[in-house]
From TrEMBL:
The lineage of its organism: Eukaryota, Metazoa, Spiralia, Gnathifera, Rotifera. This is Cytidyltransferase-like domain-containing protein. SUPFAM superfamilies: Nucleotidylyl transferase. GO terms for molecular function: nicotinamide-nucleotide adenylyltransferase activity; nicotinate-nucleotide adenylyltransferase activity. InterPro entries: Cyt_trans-like (IPR004821), Euk_NMN_adenylyltrnsfrase (IPR051182), Rossmann-like_a/b/a_fold (IPR014729). PANTHER family: NICOTINAMIDE MONONUCLEOTIDE ADENYLYLTRANSFERASE, NICOTINAMIDE-NUCLEOTIDE ADENYLYLTRANSFERASE. Gene3D superfamilies: HUPs (3.40.50.620). Coiled coil: none annotated.
Length: 691
């Protein structure tokens, strides 16, 4: 049986400023109503709402009243599409990243057609998390009874991770329990915003720095329960912040004692967090220190590469750091995992948890200060029976020096040598030329049709041509009109008949994000889903009436992007990176890089200097379509060798240059005049149905 207690009224009062008497009254009102046990909090919000700090205080009052942290299920209502819930997450990202609201899950309630399905999913989530909470409290209270401790006071922050001892969050010493697995976490990801420990443990903790005034303990999470085992994460990232090899011996000794205190009962695993790119010498130094000075026996290492967008990023990172990884391969190296922060984050964290569980079964033992345990390394580095029989400090030190020297040697070779086969490939060279400043997780095969490009390339037998390209036009398209498609057709015709004889394989209409259009047009906004639908209808009608080749498509990347508006230069550069990463390279479709041509009007070119700057990028060109009444002096001054292609109007397209979405909206609103000259019949019918 489920009992729902409405506490909406608390949100109408500034509960942050109430006195102790009023707070006590709230406690008394809340506690009896659920028999002193609360299983779940439902936070109902809307897709456009930023959660008020008042809710944080309400949550604290509830937690205090029940002496337990309660899981929170967020329900985002009034949604019309999948991207709406992503929009809510983005608007509340600052709040969620800080774990002020320790939410369990986010579900969304569709406004209309999928509402019943949404309710079923919400009920399943309620049953799941309420049951998990009850099992957790029962299990922890049983443990507390046998150990004479108080009742458990925590809940999960990810569906599979449970914070099991929040009452011990502020430790007075560094005493470590022997019943849990201990993980050293070293984050060398150069300030990457996402904290892996927070994602794994589902909580935030106060960061303490190793400095002259060294705290009694390193930052550590409360034990987390995963698969019925307890895990504790110890953040040793401060080694790189202090410059461990540059501080004096006294400071090194103090840091060493703190780390050794954890290692006395054994360290099970080193989680080495890196960003895409080469490992720094500082990171290698710190890893050597943890292996040689702290963890006496072989300790598995998991390299978690954050910022990966796909498997190719992981493979690229392995190539760039191959020699360093080989140095650790026979010592303690275990696996590499790519962590996708923006896209499929929960899936990546699940895989990371599984790897942690697999490789953290046997703890290391702490090393003696006057001895180096060399047996781990003898097979890799050729130390034989004579070395084993002596077991002296000098031999151990020689092994340590040999290992460190080898790691540094291969690291230096990695940074100075580009002889690996991977670095010789055309794909790698292209990646270096294009750069890596695109928008992560923007284009994908679901929101952008690349099959149309592949089909046209195969049909035209242009796989080996150096002149393959695609066109893209961006803008509000609120709604789409004949000039949008007409300009693409005009540019295609113009460049295919030019001296270079370009081969246009596809053309993309890319309606921009709702946030930009709403700021520009306000209530006249047609939402992104409908604008994409209208573009699709326009393309279908255009191809049917003109009997032209199927080469046009709609990209939903801009309109569906969860992180808001992205301007046309980033859109164009990211499309170039996305398409070339899939289609160009050894064993792939295209022998030469694919060009992306950004299409715009002369009025846009004259007022926006970013068009000219965009054309300076590798494998990108800009086609500027003439427009009646616009000044041509600036574009006429450009050298013919520039990446700007000026496309004059022909008789057929001259009348289209005056068409605008503004005129369509005005005529539609006033029911005045024929719209068929401005846009397509199918678009007009759909516009009238969604008004």
């Amino acid at each position: 049986m489920y009992t729902f207690i409405g506490i909406d009224g608390f949100g109408e009062t500034d509960v942050r400023n109430i006195d102790e008497k009023q707070k006590s009254l709230l406690h008394n009102q809340l506690k009896p109503s659920s028999d002193s046990m609360l299983h779940l909090i439902l936070l109902v919000t809307t897709k456009d709402e930023v959660v008020s700090p008042t809710y944080n205080y309400i949550y604290d009052i509830i937690s205090d009243a029940f002496r337990v942290k309660v899981p929170v299920l967020v329900i985002v209502s009034n949604c019309e599409r999948d991207a709406d819930v992503q929009q809510w997450v983005h608007c509340n990202r600052k709040l969620l990243d800080k774990n002020i609201l320790p939410f369990e899950d986010i579900r969304y309630l569709w406004r209309m057609e999928r509402q019943s399905k949404s309710l079923e999913e919400i009920w399943e989530a309620i049953k799941k998390y309420a049951l998990n909470q009850e099992q957790l409290l029962t299990r922890e209270n049983n443990i507390s009874t046998t150990s004479n401790q108080g009742p458990a006071t925590s809940a999960t922050s990810l569906p599979i991770v449970e914070n099991a001892a929040a009452t011990n969050a502020k430790r007075a010493s560094t005493t470590v329990s022997k019943t849990q697995r201990r993980i050293f976490v070293y984050d060398s990801s150069k300030g990457f915003k996402t904290n892996i420990i927070t994602l794994l443990s589902g909580q935030n903790y106060s960061t303490k720095y190793l400095s002259n005034n060294i705290p009694p303990s390193l930052p550590e999470t409360d034990p987390c329960i995963y698969a019925d085992r307890k895990y504790s994460f110890i953040d040793v990232s401060q080694l790189q912040q202090t410059g461990f090899n540059k501080i004096d011996q006294g400071q090194q000794s103090s840091i060493h004692k703190r780390l050794k205190n954890y290692a006395e009962v054994g360290i099970h695993l080193i989680l080495f967090v890196v960003h895409t790119g080469s490992l720094s010498s500082t990171a290698c130094d710190d890893l050597d220190y943890l292996l040689l000075k702290i963890c006496a026996k072989e300790v598995p290492i998991i390299f978690a590469v954050v910022g990966c967008k796909n498997n190719q990023d992981i493979q690229r990172w392995e190539y760039e750091n191959q020699r360093i990884l080989n140095a650790y391969q026979n010592i303690n190296f275990r696996t590499i995992l790519g962590i996708k922060i923006r896209d499929n984050c929960s899936e990546s964290i699940d895989k990371l948890w599984q790897a942690i569980e697999q490789y953290s079964k046997i703890p290391s033992i702490v090393m003696n200060d006057d001895q180096i345990m060399y047996s781990t390394f003898e097979q890799s580095y050729g130390f034989g029976a004579a070395s084993r029989s002596s077991g002296t400090k000098d031999i151990g030190v020689n092994i340590q020096k040999s290992l460190v020297a080898e790691v540094h040697r291969v690291h230096d070779q990695t940074e100075t040598s580009m002889q690996d086969d991977y670095f010789k490939t055309a794909a790698y060279n292209l990646a270096k030329e294009i750069g890596n400043d695109g928008v992560p997780g923007f284009f994908n095969k679901e929101n952008t049709n690349i099959q149309i490009l592949i089909d046209n390339c195969t049909a035209n037998r242009s796989e080996n041509s150096p002149n393959n390209c695609v066109l893209i036009i961006t803008g509000s398209m609120n709604p789409v009109h004949r000039s949008h498609i007409g300009n693409l057709e005009l540019v295609k015709q113009h460049i295919e008949q030019s001296d270079r004889q370009w081969k246009v394989l596809a053309g993309y209409l890319s309606p921009t994000h709702d946030s930009y259009v709403k700021g520009k047009l306000g209530k006249e906004l047609i939402n992104g889903r409908h604008r994409c639908e209208l573009c699709k209808l326009a393309i279908e009608e255009h191809e049917l009436t003109t009997k032209s080749q199927h080469w046009l498509s709609v990209s939903r990347a801009e309109s569906e992007y969860y992180d808001g508006f992205v301007d046309f230069p980033e859109v164009t550069k990211t499309l170039s990176q996305f398409l070339n990463s899939i289609l160009f390279g050894s064993g792939k479709l295209l022998k030469y890089p694919l060009y992306v041509v950004y299409v715009c009007g002369l009025d846009h070119f004259n007022k926006c200097p970013d068009v000219l700057r965009l054309s300076e990028n590798k494998f990108i060109k800009c086609a500027v379509v003439s427009r009646k009444g616009c000044d041509e002096r600036r574009i006429r001054r450009l050298d013919e060798s520039s990446n700007i292609i000026y496309v004059p109007l022909d008789d057929k397209h001259n009348e289209l240059s005056d068409i605008s979405s503004t005129e369509i909206r005005a005529r539609l609103k006033d029911s005045n005049g024929d719209l068929r000259r401005l846009t397509y019949d199918s678009v007009i019918r759909r516009l009238k149905s969604i008004r």
